[in-house]
Design brief:
The chain is an alpha+beta fold. The protein has 2 helices and 3 strands, in the order ααβββ. Strands 1-2-3 form a 3-stranded antiparallel β-sheet. Belongs to the WhiB family.
Length: 89
């Protein structure tokens, strides 16, 4: 009887080199870093599809930032946005 060896797939979100909190960070720059790591993942499209089906409330899934189950292009930093000169009339 032979033993079947299945090769282990390296997933960026499960690597010990990456902090698991990176995919749920508050800082937009860290979320962009997580998105970049996801681009190399062999399960990227399946991960995104499953996250959309589950309507994940937040985080980076399949290389996209989700907020309330919807893909958003970029996450704004916390706090009030800076006033623009045109608004100060």
């Amino acid at each position: 009887m032979s033993t079947l060896t299945i090769p282990r797939i390296e997933l960026p979100c499960q690597s010990t080199e990456n902090d698991a909190d990176l995919w749920f960070a508050d800082q937009p720059s860290l979320l962009e870093e997580a998105k970049t790591l996801c681009r190399e993942c062999p399960l990227q499209s399946a991960c995104l599809e499953a996250a959309l089906e589950r309507e994940e409330p937040w985080g980076v899934w399949g290389g996209e930032i989700l907020d309330r189950g919807v893909i958003i292009a970029k996450k704004r930093p916390r706090g009030r946005p800076p006033k623009r000169a045109a608004d100060a009339r």
